[in-house]
Amino acid sequence: MLQLHEWQTECLHIWARSGYRGIVNAVTGSGKTVLALSAVKHLEIVSGKELRVKIVVPQTFLTGQWKEELKRLLGAKPADIGVYCGSRKDTSRKYMIYVVNSARYCLARHILSDISGGAAVFLIADECHHYGSAENSRIFDFYKAIAEDAPYYALGLSATPEIVNFKTISTPLGREIYSYDLGRALRDKIISRFILFTVTLGFSRDESDEYEELSLSLTKCLAYIRKKRPEIWDLPSALFFAQLQRLARQEGRVAQAASTALTLMYKRRTLSHMALARPLCAVAIVKALPAQARIILFCERIQAAEKLFKVLSEQYPGQAGLYHSKMAGNARKDMLERYKLGVNRLLICCKALDEGLNIPSTDAGIIVSASMSARQRVQRLGRMLRRSKDVKRIYYLYIENSSEERELVLGLNTLENSVPLIALRYRDGAFYHAEYERLRGKALEYMSDHSHSPRLRDALSQNIGRALIRGDFLLSEPACRENLRLAGSVAERNYWTSVLYIILARLDKLN
Q1: CATH superfamily to which 6-180 belongs
Q2: Which of 23, 75, 85, 407 falls between 20 and 30 A from 312, CA-CA?
Q3: Helices (DSSP H) in 93-204: which residue ranges?
Q4: Is the predicted pLDDT of residue 20 greater than 60, yes or no?
């Protein structure tokens, strides 16, 4: 049997009691694939029929990961695994992996054929929140045609299955039967410990003026919509946005106002995503982290990612890679391989990397810009939090006094009291933290009083700045002294000496 965590065992019991159907809401990196393949093993025992497994994924690269896991965890033979996407159209294999774009036109037919042939079917919908749209939901067309007691089983997997048209997926897959969030995964030590840095940025003067002008126009537009359609006003943000899109497709003044509101929202988001401070801050963080650190930098727009890649490539020749959906498939694959192998230690990417991809060796993640979607936030965190012994660092950049700031606060509610949170402010090339400035002053005063040379004081002062950005000042005194003892160079010793001064100041031990 596969080795399961306690949550996975509990979840499988609930899934069995729910008639072997249901949707599991579990944070990325917690073991959803292992859960699903354990369900396969269980059904092979209890179904009493030949079992056909259908796995649906949203993107092509996930087919390779599922193939490897089927072989590694279930001992499946390569001849028993088929893939259905693009020009490759395997059929009638025990384990079939479909990319949803191709599955729309055949999966329902294949499932009905297997059931009518006397087999049992187990549908695994990976990242199932993708399958509620009108086109993608065609994969579920078989459901109305099967008998109530048909040997059909289902498991939906997602880090955040909440979507506007949830019923579209919950009818064929089952209700949401289990939730396993980031806080629980941290407490259970299933994902890596991490420090979360929120970094406040500001607009330039011109950006601020433009944002304020757009916001004023948007406020007037939304006030008109609220007057004419008050019933949609108190809906959750995702549902409100969906209703706004629906209104925009109609005719009349309200439709025109809804269309204008959507355009203004898009312009504001673009202005925020492309703010001049974002790449400057991201590069400053990279400079402050250890020279060997492996870092993923997330951007919301391809244009922003390409701009950041150019800057980092100039400063770190041969160390940066770029990954986004507009690149050729072979180029994207090559970039990921170079990052996994350590040829590149910096990977700048867009939404194409959000879901499903296993990136095990990453020290830090910089979310340079982000969608307002809580789903993408969780996915991006999950890329870096797969279990390792090291503490990870996550940096979340956001624009102060913008809608992004309000959304960020809401997104952090589930992390409250679960992780160390350091709130930084970035201005004019420097990072600030009020309490840390007090500790810095005490440490520098101590160094000055104890006759350190000016040259050494300057070096220690620079390192104290790095300690803020790295979060190492949160270490215990014994842990810092051990790092100092193990330091292999003068630069390392100076760094950990600086950190020690800050820690002693924090503990009020500098006399």
Answers
A1: P-loop containing nucleotide triphosphate hydrolases (3.40.50.300)
A2: 407
A3: 100-103, 107-116, 166-173, 182-187
A4: yes
